[in-house]
Design goal:
mainly alpha; 2 domains; two-stranded antiparallel ribbon; 1% strand
């Protein structure tokens, strides 16, 4: 079953008969008809919330609205046999999109042909100051995990941390952790501490495999924090790392060592 067919099966479990008839009629139309249907979808399709434990092509559609799902479905119906026509028709939608249309387009990136072509659209979404658009690339979307360079990936994660967004919702978070990102988290923490502020405790989950003397000093700072979440993060990092001084430091904090912690406890 194709991705398009899988999306339509999910649509049918949430749409009314009238909505399904409209979708079927439009999906069988020309490229121009599909473009028009993409824009018009909210006039004919409800904003029913999708409840789903399934993923389609690694895309988690849980809590999407039905009109967003339908819009993504229409995009998967575009004929990609002619690359120039295909990319031009989608570029037109990107360039004229209002916020909800942009969310659907970004959500559809994992389903689009020629993924390299859409890299600039994806990284533009990371730079967006519009929360809905940024969230569409950051969360429930495997495109960054699969295609972003290390630099682009780190920018995405750091922007989430900087804005106190839930990094645990980023797909591939652990798999794409890297030394430069760990160092950047340390730098950000120092900037925040100097200003009398903090960073989200769960950000430290990304440093466990990349411990060095500088980051270890940060973890020692967390242990003496008045914030229990910081202390939990320090305990978890020292439990996970192979850095021997961290193991020695952990043994000094028996009041934490004898408790059961996990990163889920720090997910806001």
């Amino acid at each position: 079953m194709s991705f398009s067919e899988q999306l339509f099966e999910k649509i049918k479990t949430h749409a009314s008969p009238k909505e399904i008839s409209w979708i079927e009629a439009k999906s069988a139309g020309s490229l121009q008809a599909l473009q028009t249907a993409f824009v018009a979808a909210p006039r004919f399709i409800s904003k029913t919330i999708i409840q789903s434990t399934d993923s389609i092509n690694d895309v988690d559609i849980n809590n999407w609205t039905l009109d967003r799902l339908v819009r993504v479905y229409f995009l998967t119906k575009f004929d990609s046999s002619d690359r120039e026509t295909y990319t031009k028709s989608l570029d037109t939608l990107f360039e004229t999109a209002e916020n909800n249309e942009a969310v659907a387009l970004i959500s559809a990136l994992p389903f689009l042909a020629f993924p390299d072509y859409w890299m600039l659209r994806a990284t533009d979404a990371v730079r967006s100051n519009i929360g809905l658009i940024f969230d569409a690339i950051a969360f429930q979307n495997p495109f960054p995990m699969q295609y972003f360079s290390e630099l682009a990936w780190n920018q995405l994660v750091l922007k989430c941390i900087f804005n106190d967004k839930p990094i645990h919702r980023i797909q591939g978070l652990s798999e794409r952790a890297n030394q430069e990102l760990a160092n950047s988290i340390s730098y950000l923490a120092h900037e925040r501490w100097a200003a009398g502020r903090t960073i989200p405790a769960q950000a430290w989950r990304l440093v466990s495999k990349f411990m060095n003397e500088a980051i270890f000093a940060d973890i020692c700072t967390l242990f003496v924090s008045q914030n229990l979440h910081d202390q939990i993060a320090a305990t978890l990092v020292c439990t996970e790392t192979d850095f021997s001084p961290a193991k020695e430091e952990l043994n000094k904090h028996t009041e934490l060592l004898n408790k059961t912690f996990n990163w889920t406890m720090l997910e806001g």
